[in-house]
Amino acid sequence: MSAIQHHHDKDKQDLNKFGYAQELMRSMGGFSNFAISFSIISILTGAVSLYGHGLTYGGPGMMGFGWPLVALFVMFVAASMAELASAIPTAGALYHWAAVLKNKRWGWYTAWINLIGQIGIVAGIDYSVALFADPLLGSVFGYTSTLTSTLIAFTVILITHGIFNHIGIKIVARLNDFSAWYHIAIVAVLVFTLAFFTKGGLNSVDYLFNVGQTFSDKPYMFAFLIGLLQAQWTFTGFDASAHTIEETVNPRVRAPWGIFTSVAYSFVFGFIMLAFVTLSIKDASAATGADNAFIYVISEALGGTFGKVILWLVTLAMWFCGLSSITSFSRMMYAFSRDKGMPGSRHWAQISKKYRTPAKAIWLSVILSFLLAFIDYLIKSANPDATYTTIAFLTAVSVVGLYVAYGIPIFLKLVAKAQGRFQDKHRGPWHLGKYSNFIAVVSLLWIVFISVVMVIPPNEMAGYALAGMIVLLIIMDFAYYRKHFPGPQAALNTSMDEILRRERELEGKSGGGGVHIQA
Q1: In terms of Cα–Cα distance, which of 346, 273, 342 is closest to 116?
Q2: Which residues contact 259 (CB under 8 A, 6 or more apart)?
Q3: Whole-angstrom Cα distance, residue 456 to residue 336?
């Protein structure tokens, strides 16, 4: 038996003991698993599309201090999630973890909160692409970008992502691999051109760490906290490595590393990029007053034609980010529907016989993401004087939805460990050893803090939207799902001890043994 076939058989058995058949095509390697999370984090999407938000509220110091601050705490969250992915390697990820560690109702709420965040992140990413593509197209075809033209561009972008994801995981995996290298290459090109071709040269390095300057009407410390949305939204979506875990070879090791390293590399490359962009600013006040601060800064620094070429390259990187986010969202929805957790579950759990992809879940992901942006479009059309921006609304919804969903299983694992239901023997090969509890506590404190910060004015609309969604979830739960949701197969009559017993039986039959790798 070849090594590849051995891995496939072992991974299939590993999934079987959680009660699931191998339906998705398992063809992703370690780099592909890393690449999907790295592409969804996409420093050329989050850090760029919200550059004006960060600069307006926190000034240049937002890039020098805000980015590393957020990245540090997100690495704690990522490490805690990676440990769980290694222990429970199913595509349901967050909600399977919650269900196994506590019960099916905790899993159900985790799944829906994660779905809310996933809707927000897909809408936010593709709306970011539209915010860049629409004015660039307008300059070519001679029209002025408006709220309506941006929505049209957003719709077209969403449809292209749906088509590519429908066609097949092999194509998307190759594009994700390319996307990871493309992101690194474009950051290198952007840094090089700004370093050597910025008109009038760069500012001194201390400008990057200039605190106390805000272009908002808020006191600086309060404004700085609001500006953290730029970095915090960038570092979302790295759970994609867990959602594609059933399509990854040797997932208990490769998916955890995909989660953690995608955040670490995004931190480093993102900081380098933001440093050079910020040091190239000529007039920060004018940049914050422009329709798109990043486009303004690059155009002023590099000139018209040269600047537009760079901006088109950045926009393509954003498009790759949206492609990956639909992949992650649809896999999560597929896994949840497989366990009958959604209305119409039998449809969203179907796999295309031709393409081996959850085709209907993919298109539902597209529709739900469009609806969130479209509802905001209607609100903004009826109230054109609204002070919040569409992109801040979408991104705040995704940050809070995703991070609360990240935090629930981390909290439940701490509880399960305290009660003796999760012990060292239940860990996967990727674990944090004696630092596990400390890292989990720090992660939870940060999640609580950032969830509050993301919905205070001027982002209160995101808070209202999330509150409305939570109320709807409670109604759905008590009206139907409390009695009719069977729960994931991974948690039905299954404790961590039972899963471990099955694993030992399978290893005994195959004659294999586990190799433990401590992170």
Answers
A1: 342
A2: 37, 78, 81, 82, 85, 238, 239, 241, 242
A3: 31
Looking up tokens 């109230």, which residue turns up?
Answer: 383
The stretches in the chain having pLDDT less than 70 are: 1-27, 387, 489-519
pLDDT at 516: 35
DSSP 448-484: HHHHHHTTSTTSHHHHHHHHHHHHHHHHHIIIIIHHH
**Amino acid letter at 174?**
R
Contact status, residue 439 vs residue 79, Cβ threshold 8 Å: yes
Q: What is the pLDDT of residue 234?
A: 94
Whole-number pLDDT of residue 513: 37
Q: Tell me the three state secondary structure of residue 389.
A: coil
Which of 455, 14, 427, 56 has its CA nearest to residue 220? 56
Q: How far apart are CA 456 and CA 224, in angstroms?
A: 13
Structure tokens at 78: 């990522």
Query: In the prediction, which pLDDT does 36 show?
Result: 84
CA end-to-end span of the chain, whole Å?
30
Whole-angstrom distance, CA of residue 511 vs CA of residue 453: 52
Which domains are assigned to the chain?
A: 26-484 (1.20.1740.10)
Question: What long-range pairs does 96-100 form, CB within 8 A, spacing at least 24?
Answer: 96/18, 96/335, 96/488, 96/490, 96/491, 97/409, 97/412, 97/413, 98/408, 98/409, 98/412, 99/487, 99/488, 99/490, 99/491, 100/488, 100/490, 100/491, 100/494, 100/496, 100/499
> Residue 58: which of 190, 182, 223 has the closest Cα?
223
**How remote is the C-alpha of 119 from its chain's centroid?**
11
Contact 301, 198 (CB under 8 A): yes
Token readout for 396 is: 């705040």
Let me know: does 212 contact 220? Beta carbons within 8 Å: yes
Which pLDDT score, from 0 to 100, does residue 511 have?
45
In tens, the pLDDT along 200-245 reads 999 999 999 999 999 999 999 999 999 999 999 999 989 989 888 8
In this prediction, residue 171 carries a pLDDT of 82
Q: Whole-angstrom Cα distance, residue 96 to residue 103?
A: 9
